[in-house]
Amino acid sequence: MLRIGVLLLAALLPLAYCSDVIRFGDPNVESLDDCVFDVGGRKFDLSGLKLQSTDYTGAERNYKYYMNMCAPSSKCKEASPKSSLCQFDSNSGYFESSLGNWDGGQPVAAPLDASDPKKGLLLSYTNGDRCWTPSDPMKERTANVYLTCSSTTDNTIVVSEPDTCNFKIEFKGKCSGGGGGSGGKKKGLSNGWIFIIILVVATFVYVTAGCVFNVKKKGLSGKEAFPNYSFWAAFPGYVKDGCKITANFIKNKGRRSGGQTYDEL
Asked: Do 125 and 101 form a contact (C-beta atoms < 8 A)?
């Protein structure tokens, strides 16, 4: 029984890991390698914020801003192919400058609040276009994106320029997961660990109570005393057949080839 519990725990560890990932945007979107950040032992997955043909937009003074996550902005790449964040002149409609590129390197990430990772993430771009200033003619534009956890994703961004050529972008993104905790010190068990504990305890009770009942009431012994032994003995075969059927379905795209039937598996 201990062996069964250990095997179940090992098999379900990924669930506990997944529950500690804070996902932004659509949680059903497949994760992108360059869109997952490991900050303070906690993972932030921004893959669900990636837009395909539109942008997050904002305006400030005489400029309009366009931004995308995990990829170049649809508008920005018209003038700067790798730009994920850029500004256009609102009056002329001309491209002004790129404030940051995702392609070629992730922005630097840090939690908005180290005591509560679920508040959001700070993304810092340091690879914008050159910005001429009297003190530093070769200075690069920088941008800090304050991505705040919210119940919904807001397609409008709030832009300001606290210092010359240093931009502040405020952005609300829908987030989920992450369990509990703060800065690597968890306040409690995550949902994944709670599920694992309940499942392991339930399995232990099921096996123990079933064995006692079969021995005391039915007079069974050995492997026959295991609850529902015939089903569990055949279970690996059911799994094997299911895998074969699924593999065959995928291989043939849902069509049986050469007259092969499921019975033949």
From this structure: yes
Report the C-alpha gap between 75 and 53 in whole angstroms.
9
Phi, psi of 117 (to 5 degrees): -55, -30
Phi, psi angle pair for 119, to nearest 5°: -75, -25
* Burial grade of 79 (CB within 10 A; 0-12, 13-18, 19 or more): middle
Burial grade of 134 (CB within 10 A; 0-12, 13-18, 19 or more): exposed
Backbone angles phi, psi at 161, to 5 degrees: -130, 85
- Residues of the chain short of pLDDT 70, as ranges, are 1-19, 104, 178-191, 253-265
What is the Cα–Cα distance from 250 to 244, expressed in whole angstroms? 10
How many domains does the chain divide into? 3
Same domain, 28 and 16: no
How much is the pLDDT for 186?
42
Q: What is the rounded distance in angstroms from the CA atom of residue 124 to the CA atom of residue 143?
A: 6
User: What is the structure's pLDDT at 199?
Assistant: 87
Token look-up 């497949």 returns 30
The verdict on residue 187 lying in a domain is no
pLDDT at position 120, please? 92
